[in-house]
Amino acid sequence: MDISSAAPHRLDPAGGCPHADNARLLALGAVAPVLLPGDIEGTAVLGHEALREFLAHPGVAKHARHFTALREGRIAQGWPLMTFAAVQGMTTADGDDHRRLRSLVSRAFTARRVAQLRPRVEELTDSLLDDLAHAAVSDGGVADLRRHFALPLPMGVISELLGVADHYRDRLHRLSGQVVATDIGPEQAIAANSGLVAALGDIAAAKATQPGDDLISALIAARDEDGDRLSQQELIGTLVLMIIAGHETTMNLITNAVRALCGHRDQLDLVRKGQAGWDDVVEETLRWDAPVSYFPFRYPVRDLTVDGTVIPQGTPVLAGYSAAGRDPAVYGADADRFDVTRPGRSDTPRHLSLGHGAHYCLGAPLARLEAGIALERLFTRFPDLELAVPEDELIRQPSFVGNSVRTLPVRPRP
Q1: What pLDDT, on the 0 to 100 scale, is given for residue 388?
Q2: Domain of life of the organism in this record (predicted)?
Q3: Which residues lie below 8 Å from residue 354, measured CB to CB, with a gap of 6+?
Q4: pLDDT of res. 216
């Protein structure tokens, strides 16, 4: 099928729950034409097997020089998705450049290094649970779990890894939230991107004069030792990636898991009875309600046929993680059911929500560690935790990239 002949699905810049649209699009095929903000034509790969093939395809690139509309000057200044296309770092590099940049960061996320972080994650989790309880006491028994727990845990961990001082964290979270928003205006988008780059530039400059035992200092040392290993733009681009990916996705994962368990108490009971583990909760949440819905961008370097559909060269392609996680072709007729005992398949990953291929999420072990500890200790401390408002009244994130809610009011009953 030639994708240009199908009517494109206009992605809602205001975000919203993606699952109904995903199911409708999946019923039509594994690949769908979409309209991005500014009426830029793109494609979403939605089917699990099609996405798995696409993510690892040698004819697919990440660098923006392959983005036809951008190269031809058809992308306006302040386009809300510009950072995803133009930032210089691992997520927009190919081949040797990607391997070079990834190697500079990968040592911070080895299995051994992540395991060493467990005591600190546990300590921070317990402290934040105290904060959550105090917030609820001061506000009639209700507290925003996202604000008091799901956000500061991954932000605290990634900030300590990077060496970011406490007083920068709120600013970095606010700016990164604006960068991933898709309903933002051009002036706001430009201001958010420049503000994030400026803040990270200030942090890097301070580390250059007073280095520490942290990842930013190590990256600066690599830059100063050999400019061919890491340029200043790549340094800042890498930090942009790590701040956004290092806390936004894990924040969404924890938030979505809590929502899922509060709405499916039978599944929570299975974990308490030992019939499933907290790691099963994390993996099923990643599948059932992926923290990233449509991730930008990849570009075919030539016309590419995926699942019988031709995607033209230079098309910006979104990875439809939230759709792939509920693909009935892989997960069966009950793909939209939250089931922590759902068996995996030996011939396919349990889900693709952390990516696949060369760009598989480098921080996946850390995200899994943080979420598992957070959920176990949260529901141990507050076994009767419940949502303070109905699920359908929660306000969604203003983004079709991130997939979660803005706030999560809960009653943390001990």
Answers
A1: 97
A2: Bacteria
A3: 286, 360, 361, 364, 367
A4: 93
157: left (phi over 0), alpha (psi -120 to 50) or beta: alpha
Number of domains in the chain: 1
Burial 282-301 (b: 16+ CB within 10 A, else e): bbbbbbbbbbbbbbbbbbbe
What is the amino acid identity at position 356?
H
How far CA 113 is from CA of 87, 106, 118, 245, in Å, comes to 27, 10, 9, 18
From CA 285, how far away is CA 256, in angstroms rounded?
A: 7
Q: Residue 211 belongs to what domain range?
A: 3-411
Q: Which of 98, 51, 84, 5 has the alpha carbon at shortest distance from 330?
A: 51
Instruction: Quote the pLDDT of residue 414.
Output: 75
**CB-neighbour burial class of residue 182 (10 A; exposed 0-12, middle 13-18, buried 19+):** buried
Which pLDDT score is estimated for 270? Answer: 97
What pLDDT score does 5 carry? 60
* Residue with token string 């993680």: 321
Q: What order of strands is seen across the sheet that includes strand 60-61?
A: 9-10, 31-36, 40-45, 317-320, 294-300, 60-61
Domain of residue 27, CATH code: 1.10.630.10
What is the C-alpha to C-alpha distance for residues 25 and 9, in angstroms, rounded to an integer? 8
Query: In angstroms, how far is the first alpha carbon of the chain from the final one?
Result: 56
Q: Can you list the positions of beta strands (E) in 46-165?
A: 60-61, 143-144
Furthest-apart CA atoms within the chain: distance in Å: 59
| pLDDT value of position 394 | 97
Nearest to 135 by CA among 123, 126, 147, 152: 147
Beta strands in 9-141 (DSSP E): 9-10, 31-36, 40-45, 60-61
Angstrom distance (rounded) from CA 401 to CA 172: 18
Chunked into runs of 10 residues, the chain (414 residues) has average pLDDT values of: 72 96 97 97 98 97 97 95 94 94 88 91 98 93 97 96 94 95 95 96 94 92 79 92 94 98 98 96 97 98 97 98 97 95 70 95 95 98 97 96 97 87
Interatomic CA distance for residues 183 and 81, integer angstroms: 10
Q: Rounded to the nearest 5 degrees, what angle is found at the Cα of 251, between the Cα atoms of 249 and 253?
A: 70
Distances (CA, A) of 57 to 34, 232, 236, 316, 364: 21, 30, 28, 15, 21
Cβ–Cβ under 8 Å, residues 371 and 250: yes
